[in-house]
Structure formats: C-alpha cells, structure tokens
Design goal:
Elements (H helix, E strand, L loop, with lengths): L7 E5 L2 H4 L3 H11 L3 E3 L14 E4 L6 H5 L6 E5 L5 H4 L10 E5 L14 E3 L3 H8 L9 H23 L8 H11 L5 E4 L3 H9 L8 E2 L10 H11 L5 E6 H7 L2 H7 L4 E6 L5 H10 L14 H7 L4 E4 L2 H13 L6 E5 L11 E12 L2 E11 L3
Parallel strand pairs: 1-2, 1-4, 2-3, 4-5, 5-6, 7-8, 7-9, 9-10, 10-13, 11-13
Antiparallel strand pairs: 11-14, 12-14, 13-14
Amino acid sequence: MINAAKKPYILAGHGILISGAQNEFRALVEKTGIPVASTLLGLSAFPATTRCTWATWACTATTVLISKPMSATLLIAVGMRFDDRVTGDLKTYARQARVIHIEIDPSEIDKNVKATVPINADAKEALNALLPLVQAKRHDDWLNEFKECDRIEHEKVIEKAINPSSPELKMSEVVHLISEMTKGEAIVVTDVGQHQMATSRYYKYRTTKSNITSGGLGTMGFALPAAMGSKIGQPDREVIAIIGDGGFQMTLQELGTIFQFNIGCKIVILNNSFLGMVRQWQQLFHEKRYSCTEMTNPNFVAIAKGFNIEASKVADRDNIKAALQTMLDHQGAVPAGSSGGEGRERIPDGAVRCLGIEYTAGVGGVCCSRVDDLLIVNP
C-alpha cells in the first residue's frame, strides 16, 4: 500500500518519542520521501529542517495541515490518536484516503478515524518491521504541492508574524528569535496557552527529545517545574521555559527551589495581561461574552528579586535580542518573561535568569495577542 501510494502523508505522534523510535522513523521518511506533519506532542521526533517536514498540529492551523490530509491518498499515522485538534470535523476528515494506523493503545485504533490497516504495536517494533518492505522513492510532484502551500503560508502569515511592521512585539517574533539564537537545539518547555501554540509553530526543533509540553487536558503551571526536571535530567543541554503570565503565577513559588539548588534553566515569560486562550475562545465561540480573563499582574521583576534572582523587563523590540543573549550567556539559574496585548490569539504568535517580554500580535484581524514586556533574572 505504501509503495503504491501516489500521495502518501505521514502523521508523527508522541508514540515515536516514547518508544525511542526516532532513528527508525527518520530512516523510513528518508527512504520513502513521504512528507511529514507532527502532532503537538510529536514535535522533535523528526528534525524540523529536513526536506520532508512541513507542519505541526496544535491549534496552529496552517495551509498544509488544512488542505493536505484532504488530498492525500494514504495517511500513515504513527503513535498518535487522531484527536479533534488534528481532525476537526470527522465527517469530512480525509474521507478519500486509506489509513495505516500504528498505535500501541488498542482503544485508540478505529476510535475516531477508521483504519484500513490497523497495527496495534509499539512504534519502534512496527517501524523496524516495515523498513525492509518499503521502496526508496522521492514523491517530488507531491512534495512540490507542499512547497507551494508553504510559500503561500510564509507570504501571507509567517513573514508578517516574525517580522511585524507594527511597533508592538509579537509572540511569534520572540519565539522565532529564540529558535534562531539557540539554533533549534535547546530543550524548550511550554506551559498551556497561546504561547504554547506560538512555540509549536515558530520554534524549529533540530534535536530529538527537545519539546516538553502539557498535552491532553493541558495543565497550566506545568512549565516551570517541568523545566526544573528537564535541566536536572539533562544538565548539559540548554533548557528554556517559555511561559504565559497566567501559568507562571500558578507555580512561581518554584523560583525558590530553582535558586536554592541552582537549577540553571532559563525562563521567558510572555506577559499579555490576559488568560489569552480562554479569552480567544470567548471571542470566537461565545459571542464575546468575556469573563474573568483580563489580569492585573504583579511585578514579576520584584517577585524574582524576592527569591534572590535578578530580573529585567524588556518591552522594546530593539532590546530583545541583547536581552535574550544575556539570558543565554548566563551560567546558572535564569528566568525570562514577557507580557503582551489582549491575549486574543490562539493560532498565535513571550532561569535562573528571568526575562519578561511585553508583546502584541494579531492574525487575520482576530485573536490578537501582544507582549508587553520581557523579564530577565540572574541569581
């Protein structure tokens, strides 16, 4: 089925990372030349800069993600569960395609999308068995369709998001800059919210096991303690927590632990003074009946200093790169934070050193988010 498919499409999920199948998965993609999209938790299973990598699911609906499953002749899902953030309306999702579903949890197979070939197995074992059977191909014509979608996406959305003409900072430009300055090699830990979506879209992971985020129900407050654990587990790698102002306040007491044990994770707080994702849902789906989403935030710099951690705040685009470089150069614990606009962007665009960024961003005139300031903290 794979060898005969004219327009195959691989959907990479978290199961690849859990099973340690990154090498087998990369070998499959490079041998078959099939384009790849990733789920939110599947990020960093496969390098974002390779020829066949095109998009990431989360709530960041790109042109590729919306259109290509609808024209693919074969979907190969590896270690993912076809949740509603991936499929949208199941009545119309990829009805024309045959589906190969590799998944270790039998309850997920045929639950949302009917599999033509269900494979209830560990991803690593399944891919090892599959590799000798697939033929080497390139699928150049099919990949050119992806390139055209990518060109349109970059022209209409991405270029404006990472190089905005407006004076306000955007989440997208801050995350893009962090990605470039770290060469996509940092472990990036995100909380839950618009900043999480912006990071999934604009951070280009080049190293495996580098995306740590809260999936499923989505737990605000996740990022700071998760960044601590990531740094303890991987002391030789750069660990950066990108957190919204709402989630940061749920576990900010861990700054005390970070300082006491000198845990050298970096923290970037994207502060827009809103529970941005909740506000966006109220805007888009609840007739703008806003409730309990606007926040009167504390002085994050003062809080960091209360834990004996130096911090700084940046609201000017001209100062962002220097502030981030200072954070990255710092040895030891560093938090960083940013604050932004009205938190209206779900398809988004802001250790021990703390950096705070204030921002504002918008997509298509709706769901705009902004960063008001960036905080940098040194113990």
